[in-house]
Design a protein that fits this description.
The chain has 476 residues and is α/β, with parallel strands linked by helices. The protein has 15 helices and 16 strands. The protein has 2 domains: 92 residues, no CATH class; 371 residues, Aldolase class I (TIM Barrel, Alpha-Beta Barrel). The strands form 3 sheets. Strands 12-11-10-9-8-7-13-14-15-16 form a 10-stranded mixed β-sheet. A 4-stranded antiparallel β-sheet has the order 1-5-4-3, covered by helices on one side. Helix 6 crosses helix 8. The longest helix is centred in the last third of the chain and has 36 residues.
Length: 476
């Protein structure tokens, strides 16, 4: 048995080693153990402690579904270690309870700021593109009025954090650059009031000029922009269906990316892939590494994601993918290709650190979404039942009580291996269908674990080659 990652240190400290079971109690597999067969071994991942083990197949007996062991098994070295680390637990353990208590402590330790620090703002829902997969299809197109812009600014100032000054704004839309004047006004107000803030934006990237790129960095304090590229020029134009008179939209976006990077802004390129543009995704990756200089590429990150379908509501935190397992396997391949080309390590923190807040609804006191009408939402999918006031009338106390009412952990979630990395929030609109949420989490974790496994194997191979090159002696 090999330990590939020792888990989240915060969880390790809080849980310690598992106490021995009561006399006579049987032992079973923890509900939070996820396992995956990979290259002749099993990867075992504990979704609460975030510990990752690699096991030879003959040991997988300890994990056969539903098997109960007597305590004698703890006399053996491997099961004793697995028990100590919560991979095996006493039969009667209420693991969802342990999870909830642990989360409470971790969240308490984080000491949330007093005041709103995280904003998602839609300065408009209009857009100059018509992507066929846009989750806002069917929404009314409207730009925030001048009055709502002023109310938004006043709302931010009224709710500014008392203890920690810095706030963060995520400009979303529609295409936020279709309402650059609204962003100008809100940022000018914040700058005048000497509010400390930083920002990011999700944009199609087609509307930047040298001047707006500079303004985005200097006056709007944007440090990062996410731009979607679904293919090279022809495929890109076909999928984006721009309505404005941009002659060559692909060239326009690439030009914007150069300008934004030159201004100091980092770009994340998201490749939305489905069965019809897989080859295009590889072409875009090759193209980007030739088009951008080594220096520029330091501010450029690319990743592929399977395209979420019409069932998907919400922004970044909660995309629901409806793709097939075959498609997910190709997405892993593309991301592996990107990683190798950029000689990058996978994002270990994203996998091995237990998230204390899955999404904005677990900390509504400091997160809010403001739509183009100035309505306040506690959930970024903006369902009506999560609306709790407006920037004009402020927070409605009754609606606030409703959206922040404690929720019970659903029965499916309480028994689900993914609970520690998912949301137990029982009103989440993207988690209503059990089969779908489970498949989505499974795909995501499979994708991450396979990428990490590939990275470890590659590193081991390199070390072995280096030892062989050095005539069998380890290189110092
Ligand atoms: S929402 Fe679905 S995937 Fe998430 S913990 Fe509940 S059952 Fe599991
Ligand atoms: S409750 Fe669900 S849809 Fe809403 S922000 Fe959280 S994950 Fe996204």
């Amino acid at each position: 048995m090999e330990c590939l990652w020792s888990g989240d240190p915060r969880v390790r400290v809080l849980l310690g080693k598992q106490k021995l079971p009561e006399e006579g109690e049987k032992i079973r597999l923890s509900r939070f153990v996820y396992f995956l067969y990979s290259e002749g071994r099993y990867l075992l991942f504990h979704t609460l402690t975030r510990k990752l083990l690699s096991l030879p197949p003959q040991m997988i007996d300890y994990f056969a579904d539903g098997r109960l062991f007597s305590q004698d098994v703890l006399a053996r070295e491997v099961p004793a270690k697995l028990y100590e680390d919560f991979f095996l637990v006493p039969e009667s353990t209420l693991e969802s309870q342990i999870y909830l208590e642990l989360m409470d402590v971790l969240r308490l330790k984080e000491e949330l700021p007093r005041g709103i620090t995280q904003y998602v703002i839609l300065p408009t829902t209009t857009c100059n593109a018509r992507c066929f997969y846009c989750f806002e299809q069917g929404m009314k197109y409207r730009k925030m009025s001048a009055e709502t812009v002023e109310d938004t600014l006043r709302f931010i100032l009224r709710h500014k954090p008392k203890d920690r000054k810095r706030i963060h704004i995520h400009w979303f839309g529609g295409e936020p650059m279709c309402a650059a004047d609204n962003i100008d006004r809100i940022c000018a107000g914040l700058n005048k009031a000497e509010i400390e803030y930083d920002a990011e934006m999700t944009s199609n990237g087609s509307l930047f000029t040298e001047e707006t790129a500079r303004r985005a960095f200097e006056a709007w304090k944007i440090s990062e922009i996410q731009i979607t590229l679904d293919g090279m020029a022809e495929e890109y134009a076909r999928r984006k269906r721009y309505t404005s008179s941009i002659k060559d939209p692909f060239a326009a976006v690439i030009r914007s990316m150069h300008l934004l990077i030159a201004a100091g802004i980092k770009i994340t390129v998201r490749l939305n892939v489905d069965e019809n543009n897989l080859g295009e995704a590889f072409r875009v990756v090759d193209y980007l590494s030739e088009e951008f200089t080594e220096e520029e590429r330091k501010k450029l990150r690319t990743y592929a994601h399977s395209l979420f379908g019409q069932l998907g509501d919400g922004l970044n935190a909660c995309p629901v993918d409806t793709g097939s397992d075959a498609l997910e396997a190709r997405v892993v391949e593309i991301n592996e290709y990107i990683r190798r080309r950029g000689r990058m390590a996978p994002d270990m923190d994203a996998v091995f650190r237990l998230k204390t807040h899955y999404c904005m609804v677990t900390a509504p006191e400091c997160n809010v979404l403001i739509d183009a009408d100035g309505q306040l939402f506690a959930c970024d999918a903006m369902p009506e039942y999560m609306r709790y006031g407006s920037v004009k009338t402020d927070i409605d106390p009754d609606a606030w009580k409703r959206v922040t009412a404690p929720c019970a952990v659903r029965r499916e979630c309480g028994e689900c291996v993914f609970l520690p990395q998912c949301t137990e929030f029982d009103r989440c609109p993207s988690r209503m269908a059990y089969d779908q949420c489970f498949r989505q989490e499974k795909r995501r974790l499979d994708r991450e674990l396979r990428a990490i496994d590939a990275f470890y194997r590659e590193r081991q191979n390199k070390q072995r080659d280096a030892v062989e090159t050095a005539g069998g002696k380890p290189i110092q």
